[in-house]
Design a protein that fits this description.
- By secondary structure, the protein is mostly helical.
- The protein has three helices and no strands.
Amino acid sequence: MHSTTLRWLAAAALAASLSACGSMSPRERDTAVGAGIGAAAGAAITGDVGGAVGGGIVGGVIGNQVGR
């Protein structure tokens, strides 16, 4: 996949995750936002799906711990 396509997919995933946050607890919302931002950053930095997945995992963990 082209890196521009990956960036658009990551941005779409972030927008979808943010739109579903209305009924979430603050900690769940922080986890989702962290995962979305991490996936976008991972895709932008590495330019591949593996980077997006790794960034999403790391971002989700960080987002989860921010609310503690």
